UniProtKB/TrEMBL annotation:
Keywords: Signal. The keyword Signal applies. The lineage of its organism: Bacteria, Pseudomonadati, Fibrobacterota, Fibrobacteria, Fibrobacterales. It comes from the Bacteria. Residues 1-20 form the signal peptide. InterPro entries: DUF1302. It holds the Pfam family DUF1302. This is Uncharacterized protein.
Length: 407
């Protein structure tokens, strides 16, 4: 079935290419093949991941309009439901002088943060294998209508998502990244809001482009895409059930980017109104207003060195001791890279530090460009700490290798 699907898609692409030439359209067909394999560092040294993927991207252009589609054909030897053919993006795109329209399944990114989410809340994340994927690969596309006025000094954007998407959390006995649960406990994250118009997402963004300053203002009606979990007891099965809670919340915020020589200073703020927060007893939750702020500094130091640092801080307003979180929480991130051997070898390290839980995630990597089309990579995912999610996944510290061929 897998081979038949690949053959059918390639045949359709060739047929479209011939048709496009006859009608003076333009058709682009490109993509990549990659293969990723990871091994647990600690005993018993299990295979943490083994997957191979073919990505096909097709775009048909006619004047100011285009159609784009992206399909993943994947084989995952560990997580069986991750094998098969999956539509990633498929949308109509119109780029006029005064109006741009993008309608269909697409990835929407807002804000200036690197790997952290403040105003970038529309496209959720796929944590099936936690963070053991490239950041761009774990974004979940949404079905949306995106209208934009593309001015020279400012732009205005309006987004409507009829049916929101939510975080995909790791689950299943065959997945080494599934969150461990106590005995006689099950997880139920199926309680997402009904697919009704009242539960749709709508947001707007104004962006301003000045000589030495870019900034934007955003407003969004959305949900907490990552579920807040509370525990209950099922008397029939005499077991505990951890349920995921999703609540509507309003978000207002903005971001700024200031170039200053070799530096770029980035900032982002967001206020969440009605964010659900679980209580310490894990049996209920309260809605609270929270304030989130981020400051980032990027230094392009020359000689192919790049340094990127971020600090994010969150404050829970109207705080009470019964809440299952601290009033103030912080996160630090760093990304350092250096290119060598005529830019064919890139050494990098990315790290996250959970200040309050003293938890950390570190990803050192080496990417070697064999040719313009082939890249091989070697790296590791190191997790640990005193408390929190990074501590929970400490046993999943792994080394990995990846190959990628572009066409």
């Amino acid at each position: 079935m897998f081979k038949k699907t690949v053959f059918a898609l390639l045949s359709a692409a060739i047929a479209l290419s011939v048709h496009a030439q006859e009608d003076e359209l333009s058709l682009q067909l490109n993509g990549f093949v990659d293969s990723y394999h990871a091994l647990q560092v600690e005993h018993p040294h299990k295979i943490m991941s083994s997957r191979t993927r073919l990505r096909l991207e097709m775009r048909a252009n006619y004047g100011e309009a285009s159609l784009f589609s992206s399909v993943n054909l994947a084989y995952n030897s560990l997580i069986k439901d991750q094998s098969g053919a999956f539509l990633r993006e498929a949308y109509f795109d119109y780029a006029g002088k005064y109006l741009e329209v993008k309608a269909g399944r697409q990835i929407i990114t807002w804000g200036v943060a690197d790997g952290l989410r403040l105003t970038d809340l529309i496209s959720p994340m796929d944590y099936t294998e936690f963070m053991a994927n490239d950041y761009d690969d774990i974004r979940v596309p949404v079905n949306a209508i995106n209208l934009k006025y593309p001015g020279e000094s400012f732009s205005a954007e309006l987004v409507f998502v009829p049916v929101p998407e939510y975080f995909v959390m790791p689950s299943g006995e065959d997945n080494p990244w599934t969150m461990p649960l106590p005995a006689n406990t099950s997880m139920d994250l199926s309680g997402t809001p009904e697919k009704r118009l009242k539960n749709s997402e709508v947001g707007g963004r104004l962006r301003f482009f000045l000589e030495n300053l870019d900034f934007s203002l955003t407003a969004l009606r959305t949900f907490n895409k990552s579920p807040v979990t509370i525990a209950s007891f099922n008397p029939e099965t005499k077991s505990a059930v951890i349920k995921g809670i999703y609540e509507p919340m309003n978000v207002v915020g903005g971001d700024v980017s200031i170039p200053a020589g070799e530096l770029v200073i980035r900032g982002e703020v967001a206020a969440y109104f009605g964010e659900p927060i679980a209580l310490k007893n894990s049996r209920d939750y309260w809605l609270r207003k929270t304030f989130n702020a981020l400051l980032g500094i990027d230094w392009y130091a020359g000689d192919n060195w790049t340094f990127m640092f971020q600090y994010m801080h969150k404050v829970v307003m109207d705080y009470r001791e019964v809440l299952g979180t601290e009033q103030n929480t912080s996160m630090l991130t760093a990304r350092i890279s250096k290119e060598l051997l005529n830019n064919t070898l890139k050494l990098s390290v990315y790290g996250m530090y959970d200040v309050d839980n003293v938890g950390f995630y570190i990803r050192p990597a080496a990417d070697y460009l064999l040719s313009d089309q082939i890249t091989v990579s070697l790296g590791s995912d190191i997790l640990g700490g005193r408390r929190g999610t990074f501590k929970t996944y400490k046993k999943n510290t792994q080394i990995w290798v990846k190959g990628k061929y572009f066409f």
